[in-house]
């Protein structure tokens, strides 16, 4: 496959595909050759709008259309079956988060790709943010000493055009925890270089989520190395800002405006020597993600976030839901 463009099939006529991923695949040198949507008319219109030459409602037809890799962006309950079919067909898989609704299903997906010898990645885009990478690098370099605490502010407002299954369809894995906290879980692991062991959380129904579906959550995570991390996620806060802070024995890192799809934000380091604005080289998060994935497909390196990373982020999110429902601390047990 060296020298040839990676040929992509897109599974799901989604907003993220239209706004970010299809363009990223092309900018990274790939070709988007086919789309599958369960709705024939929607799929045909979407393919026309995005310049995809072939649209189908049949996954087998998509997998047989000469593609090398699939990008799976359907609702969460569909990811398992679609990933297993792609792996069986020998196609590399980049799957949206969360990977599935249960850890058993997510582990099955990752194992199926491993057995088939195909690359599997989880589309945790925030790992690609220059701000998040600057935070990770500063922590790893010991610039704040021992990491003691972290705080993630990821409460946003879900815009009207996205107020569909995420707040209405419990069977699809809806709610703020599986949609947003799963990102916090991955980003905390990435920045701290550590694994979570337990979480305590409380969820909220603030008026946007349907019956039994949380639209806000706060929690605290305990990490193996002793650090504690707060997270605040919501669909209901129209005027909140996002951020990521890490506080250590010798300094603090303050990231602002960084929990977003856009290449924006800044990071300040505060120590006894004063304040230093870290150098941030912003770039398109999704182009970076797709480029790394395509490089892995060619046999060099690995996806920015692997399938195993997807399992671990799910494990923390599911533990947060368990804690919220039981009123007790819940262990984080990815089982890998």
UniProtKB/TrEMBL annotation:
EC number(s) given by UniProt: 1.1.1.292
InterPro entries tied to this protein: Gfo/Idh/MocA-like_OxRdtase_N (IPR000683), Gfo/Idh/MocA_oxidrdct_glycsds (IPR050463), GFO_IDH_MocA-like_dom (IPR055170), NAD(P)-bd_dom_sf (IPR036291)
Keywords carried by this UniProt record: Oxidoreductase
Single GO MF annotation: 1,5-anhydro-D-fructose reductase (1,5-anhydro-D-mannitol-forming) activity
Protein name as catalogued: 1,5-anhydro-D-fructose reductase (1,5-anhydro-D-mannitol-forming)
Keyword match tRNA-binding: no
Domain Gfo/Idh/MocA-like oxidoreductase N-terminal, chain residue ranges per copy: 6-124
One Pfam family per UniProt: GFO_IDH_MocA_C3
Superkingdom of the organism of origin: Bacteria
Domain named GFO/IDH/MocA-like oxidoreductase: residues: 132-253
Top EC class, one word: oxidoreductase
The keyword 4Fe-4S appears for this protein: no
